[in-house]
Design goal:
single chain, about 850 residues, alpha/beta, Rossmann fold, 8-stranded mixed β-sheet, 17 strands, about 50% helix, globular
Length: about 850
């Protein structure tokens, strides 16, 4: 029997021992209720001895139990010193250096029994134990430019594979430190390569600034000054584009697709990192994510690829989709912070709390008591009541909400339950900022006064940034959040409350555990808590956390739509239907683009090769229609492939319209106010007709107005006030808080969903076809400004504002700073110097919670 098998078998026998189960449950229960008694010593001794064995097992179930036992004991300041030393050894065996580093630092300042970070020689240890400690420290420590970093076992496996230039597919819990190790590998990469370009794909625009800021900090830490961190497609394909010598491109898939379509040469890439890669299964967006990744691989067949996904049991799937050779699967379910799954059952006034253990596959009771008051029954009020009355108020608490409305209602309910005001200068500054730059009656203001915030996707970037900072600094103790949490935003908490969760639809297993992974802050907490309230009342069709280890199986949206909706694909090819499902339309467009660009034979062959459920017979009829349609397309393929997400038939409609038009509407710079608005409205009307968008004239007029104000750098508050004044003057809106906030939400949603995506995409396509037609007809369109889609996407058009925003400064803050400058400054280093020299005057407009986070 091998050593690893010996420890695994022994661990399993211990877990099945009734005494162990009793001890484990008692330790967990006493820890939960905060009752540390002397009688606990014997329990701790037996458990710590067991955990020392579990930590040597290769079975992660055993390691998770060891993590929990050692975490509880180490966190308990009353623990016996020898037992604490044994806990340290267990964390060492688990390779959990972050927990050890935290425990040796303020505010814990525990003793470093094995001199792990001091570098001093080990004394008075048995030889075998000394060898074990030394080997572990050496295996998990790495030197980058004279700095030593200590990694977990998972991070060590990732770092070693990347240094050996392997392609890797990583699946690990949310808090496993994936970003930490990738950032340091990128540093190591640039320190060893004179010329290199890296692409980092993120799922949302909200993540771009966070990752850009993280890279800027890590590059400064290692004195790397010559690497460009670019986030805009126009910095690469537009006028005055950068020469890519040493660069990190942090892009959404839409921005990457814009580059791929419009760049004049294949983009040379050494390393591609795909964050939240499992989103390849998300209907239309998944299809276009797959397409954008495939294009980079086609251009750079020898590049190194990193796929990142949480809680997926088949991370090797990406190798099959993209025919990636030498793809190493690195999978773990072991988090660095142990997490407690706590079930809260409420019946009338009786409350029962249970601990759920996936490792032991059982529930055990933690506490039972009865309260004197009636407990609310509505979803938002019950969540708020549980957060206030069951959780420890000093901890950072996150309440999961099913949508923006649920967020606001839950924040309101919690504010009322808490019923105390918070006096804090940073909150006061931020409230004043919101009154000017959003609206005095913005709902968030009411809840901030009581130390409660909310966070969801359709909020201004500056507001989200400030709320995140207030929460991370514990100025706000409670946050009500939607699935924004699942998009990778670095936003963990000590405890999460979940009740009847949905994410547009009943929550699935991947979504639940991705959310639960936010409980417990690495380098801040020993543990995290997930409170599941009245789980028996959750939607039957949705996921309920089980006591069996599960996992999510990654699928390809492209493969799924071909397998499950082939008839719809054929129908949409026969007759374009704007009401068709988005994934069907995306699949058809991808088929057509490939057919027009290079013929569909290779694409079809690859689909069959990678998925046995897709046969040649499934695709024969599709291919016939592709050939027939492509033969009728008059627009040149080089123009069509610049806009790969728009159906070539629609592009051809626009081409025929412009080819036969008496006059061509051209986009002009936003500073030409009336011309910009009038021309944009004409263009929108043409696009609406040719692309079959189905908008009414009133909607087009509104979108043209909103685009004009947005790209002309009106602050959101100015736009909101103008819109409210107009609606009230027309008798379409009453002057109350509910109506005002409804208008605020509509404007933000229209900006995020219509302006910055759909309108920009369609307008970019219009400009490409306009230029082609103008060249064919010999018409001068040199006065057109092809950057208009970019101005509308980011909401700015002045050089200084664009420079600030391209360097991670939120739009509102960038505009306020730009307005204070006597002249344009396009050099970011010069801008930072001006900002720091004028800190006092700038802080009158930008609250310190934002200013300090952005510039210090």
């Amino acid at each position: 029997m091998s050593v690893s098998s010996f420890y695994e078998d022994l661990s399993q026998k211990i877990i099945l021992n009734p005494q162990f189960i009793t001890d484990f449950e008692e330790l967990t229960r006493l820890n939960f209720i905060g009752n540390k008694t002397k009688s606990e010593f014997n329990i701790q001794k037996r458990l710590i001895e067991s955990a020392a064995i579990f930590a040597c097992s290769d079975n992660e179930k055993h390691k998770r139990i060891a993590l929990k036992i050692a975490g509880i004991i180490l966190e308990n300041s009353e623990s016996n010193e020898l037992i604490r030393a044994a806990s340290e050894l267990i964390f060492l065996r688990l390779g959990n250096f972050p927990i050890l580093e935290m425990s040796f630092s303020d505010p814990y300042d525990y003793k470093d029994y094995f001199n792990i970070f001091s570098g001093e020689e080990l004394e008075n240890l048995p030889v075998t134990l000394g060898i074990e400690v030394t080997k572990k420290v050496i295996s998990n420590s790495f030197t980058i430019k004279d700095r030593t970093i200590y990694l977990t076992d998972f991070q060590t496996a990732v770092f070693n594979s990347l240094r050996n230039k392997r392609n890797v597919s990583i699946s690990a819990p949310t808090s496993a430190g994936k970003s930490f190790v990738l950032e340091r590998y990128v540093v190591d990469h640039f320190l060893n390569k004179q010329k290199s370009t890296i692409i980092y794909i993120v799922p949302t625009r909200a993540l771009i600034a966070q990752i850009q800021n993280d890279f800027r900090k890590i590059f400064d830490k290692f004195s790397i000054r010559d690497v460009d961190i670019l986030t805009s497609s126009w910095e690469i394909i537009g006028e005055g584009k950068r020469e890519l010598s040493r660069a990190v491109l942090i892009l959404t898939q839409e921005r990457l697709q814009a580059i791929e379509g419009k760049i004049d040469y294949p983009l040379s890439i050494d390393l591609l990192i795909v964050d939240e890669a499992h989103k390849i299964e998300e209907e239309a967006r998944g299809i276009w994510l797959e397409e954008s990744i495939q294009q980079i691989i086609d251009w750079n067949p020898n590049l190194q690829i990193v796929f990142i996904s949480p809680f997926t049991i088949n991370p090797e799937k990406f190798g099959k989709i993209f025919f990636t050779e030498n793809l190493q699967r690195i999978y773990t379910r072991l988090p660095p912070v142990h997490q407690n799954l706590i079930f809260v059952d409420i019946e009338n006034r009786k409350i029962k709390l249970w601990q759920g253990s996936q490792e032991l596959k059982r529930r055990f009771e933690l506490d039972e008591h009865e309260v004197q008051e009636n407990i609310p029954t509505s979803i938002y009020a019950r969540k708020a009541w549980v957060a206030k009355n069951i959780l420890v108020e000093s901890e950072s608490i996150m309440i999961y909400c099913n949508g923006p409305s649920d967020c606001r209602k839950t924040a309101k309910a919690y504010s009322e339950v808490k019923n105390t005001k918070v006096e804090n200068s940073k909150i006061t500054e931020f409230i004043n900022f919101l009154k000017i730059n959003i609206h005095p009656q913005y709902y968030l203001i009411d809840y901030l006064k009581r130390g409660v915030g909310y966070h969801y996707s359709d909020m201004p970037s500056s507001v989200k940034s400030a709320v995140e900072s207030l929460f991370s600094q514990k100025i706000l103790g409670t946050m009500c959040c939607t699935s924004t949490l699942l998009e990778g935003v670095n936003f963990p908490a000590k405890s999460i409350v979940i009740y009847k969760p949905r994410k547009g639809m009943p929550m699935d297993e991947l979504t639940f555990w991705n959310l639960a992974g936010r409980a417990g802050r690495l380098m801040k907490d020993f543990s995290g808590n997930i409170y599941c309230v009245d789980i028996d009342s959750w939607a039957e069709e949705g996921y309920k956390p089980e006591l069996e280890d599960g996992g999510h199986t990654i699928q390809s949206s492209m493969e799924n739509v071909i397998s499950g909706k082939r008839d719809k694909i054929v129908g949409h090819l026969k007759n374009y239907n704007k009401q068709e499902e988005d994934d069907v339309k995306a699949a058809v467009t991808r088929f057509l683009i490939n057919e027009i660009a290079k013929g569909s034979d290779e694409f079809v062959e690859q689909l069959i090769k990678r998925n046995t459920e897709i046969s040649k017979e499934n695709l024969d009829e599709i291919v016939v229609h592709l050939t027939k349609i492509s033969s009728k397309i008059g627009l040149h393929k080089d123009v069509i492939t610049r806009n790969r997400s728009i159906d070539p038939r629609l592009q051809n409609n626009l081409y025929n319209f412009l080819k036969n038009s008496n006059s061509l509407a051209i986009p002009v710079h936003p500073s030409k106010y009336s011309d910009f608005y009038n021309n944009l409205l004409k263009i929108m009307e043409i696009i609406n007709k040719c692309f079959k968008r189905g908008y009414h004239q009133n909607s087009l007029t509104y979108y043209a107005w909103l685009s004009s104000r947005w790209s002309n750098e009106k602050t959101l508050g100015e736009i909101i006030r103008e819109r409210i004044n107009y609606l009230q003057s027309q008798g379409k809106m009453v002057d109350d808080q509910e109506s005002i906030n409804k208008t605020i939400e509509e404007i933000i949603r229209d900006i995020n969903q219509k302006l910055t995506f759909e309108i920009c995409r369609d307008l970019s396509c219009y400009i490409d076809i306009l230029k082609f037609v103008a060249q064919e007809r010999g018409i001068d369109v040199s006065k057109s400004d092809e950057k208009v889609p970019y101005y509308i996407e980011v909401g700015a058009s002045k050089p200084t504002t664009l420079t600030l925003m391209n360097n991670g400064i939120p739009r509102t803050v960038a505009i306020l700073i730009s307005r204070m400058l006597p002249s344009d400054i396009q050099d970011f280093d010069k801008l930072k110097k001006y900002i720091m020299n004028n800190e006092e005057s700038l802080k009158r407009q930008v609250p310190s919670i934002l200013f300090d986070d952005l510039f210090k």
